């Protein structure tokens, strides 16, 4: 929705300090991958700026590399990236310039922690043409994904895009294997496959729609279970993976971080999530009077925040948020540099970067009024942007 009006989805803020793309990039870095390219397309400025600021520490002198590959019509003047596979095809010369034996293809818009080294090892040992990262999902939810049918050995025998009746996992009929959009190839094999796909007029030039089904049909495709390489600290009980592509999912995943023991551990120093970190002073809480006490409970409050006589409960405040006296935030996800006016009461909200909330604004108590003024989801979460405030 409006969160991606001016920024690509991987550049959307997450978790108080990060952007969504930081999870895939941190997984790569922590897995020992030191040559990384990011292909960008629409509304890419915010993403490219973040990558330049936060990911420019990989050095050629150390046999490392970090390339940003915008859709720059390098192949033809009328040809942007036509699909996920085409985004790689148009940069084959750059990739081959590094001479990698293997290549890992990642989506940049999911939240999870994973050791790609284990997936790469499986790929080499199995002799597969492609290894596909797969997620165990309940069968009744699998229709929203590309679903893998596998045999007892883990070889993929069918690939179905959003099937009405997903094939069950062998030995566990209640689960299905959904594609995570993560693939491992031997580089030479992939280049030959991409060249063939490039010249196919019937192809949509997409990994999930074209290349992977072709390998399943004509070659050897093997599934890699996310549970086998998911990185968990002692605090994480279940493998954690989230697609935060809706306002509800984005709000829920952020608010979940405020739990006493969150499902995703951002405090795991053995698997840090790297990002661009602004230089900010510590968070500050001021005033200690009845009904005017700067406080936060079960909340994450980032650097540069000033909680001035405001009450924050079960909420997540990104960098530089100022909450003024007598205001109340409950189950709120507040992006950087938002100002909350006095006496405002906000519940179940996502507030975009830089919004100035006027004094006395109440959101989350009158569903009809909320829907008239803001973007209100079916689950009752309100997305608030500055343009919505300006129309009040």
Structure commentary:
- The strands form seven sheets. Strands 16, 17, 19, 20, 22, 24, 26, 27 and 28 form a nine-stranded mixed sheet that branches.
- Strand 8 (146-150) and strand 9 form a beta hairpin.
- The model has no long low-confidence stretch (mean pLDDT 92).
- By secondary structure, the chain is an alpha/beta fold.
- It has helices at 21-30, 45-54, 84-89, 92-98, 116-126, 187-198, 207-218, 247-256, 367-373, 386-390; strands spanning 13-14, 18-19, 35-40, 65-70, 102-105, 110-112, 130-138, 146-150, 156-161, 175-186, 221-225, 241-243, 284-286, 288-289, 292-293, 295-297, 300-301, 306-308, 311-313, 316-317, 322-323, 328-334, 339-340, 345-351, 356-357, 362-363, 375-376, 382-384.
- The protein has two domains: 2-258, Spore Coat Polysaccharide Biosynthesis Protein SpsA, Chain A (Alpha-Beta Complex), CATH 3.90.550.10; 284-390, UDP N-Acetylglucosamine Acyltransferase, domain 1 (3 Solenoid).
- The protein has ten helices and 28 strands.
- It starts with 12 loop residues before the first strand and ends with a helix.
- This is Glucose-1-phosphate adenylyltransferase.
- Keywords: ATP-binding, Carbohydrate metabolism, Glycogen biosynthesis, Glycogen metabolism, Nucleotide-binding, Nucleotidyltransferase, Transferase.
- Involved in the biosynthesis of ADP-glucose, a building block required for the elongation reactions to produce glycogen. Catalyzes the reaction between ATP and alpha-D-glucose 1-phosphate (G1P) to produce pyrophosphate and ADP-Glc.
- One of its GO terms (molecular function) is glucose-1-phosphate adenylyltransferase activity.
